[in-house]
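[Protein data]
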Amino acid sequence: MTKQGRTNGQDIQPAASRLQSMVASLPATSRRIAQFVLDNVGEVVHMSVTELAERTASSEGSVVGLAKTFGYTGFQQLKIALAQDLVAPVQFIHEDLEPGDHPDTVIRKIFASHIQALQDTHANLGVHALTRAMEAIRNARRVEVYGIGSAAPIAEDAAYRLMRIGIEARALVDSHMQAIGASLTGPDVATLTISHSGSSQETLTATRLAREAGAKTIVLTNYGKSPMQAYADIVLFTMARETNFRTEAMTSRIGQLAVLDALIACLALQDYEASSEVLRRSFEILSLKRY
């Protein structure tokens, strides 16, 4: 029996064994979710909480509740625990690596995965969605950019680059500031939320509050269904694999940066003369910071 063959209780690793030991005693909805997870571990570690809820005819709250029943903080932590049953420890460094890989091989595999993520993101980035995001930003009095954890530096970079082309923008990377800022937005504000999983509670809350306040909400997230999309007016997709095991890996950030690069370049070209003038002035100001 391989590690993925878990339906008969044999060779079950810790996370799945905890589910297996209690599945019969769970309420009907939780039992249905748990049994689906046990029967499809290899597929579940690729899913968002929204996708699992749909596949099991349940709700996102029921999926999260099941995870908490077994001592996890949420579905993401349960996925990581299940993934640990499936993969070798070295794969938490990078999914394609193997113990003993020569540095040449490591370099080749790392770069290949990044190139693949860029190609996949390019193939799935809709021009219509990008155009709508451009219009929302151009029509806004200001832009607020939300990111938490590994998405925080991406949010700060996006806000900085928007400012460089003359668009008033600020990055909010503290959860309290995000909640306050989002609640004080309105129809004349556009928000850009960056979240690979689309399930981060802090940025999901900020996006929801901004939507409720009337702001135009843009979400940059990985391809697939996620809770945050329920509060997004516009969704820009990346395609990166580390959702399964490594939420802090570089691959997703490379995809995010590429999408933002395209978005900001299009915005600059849309108002070429004004953007060029602001860039020229900012270059002059920044030149004073250099010897």
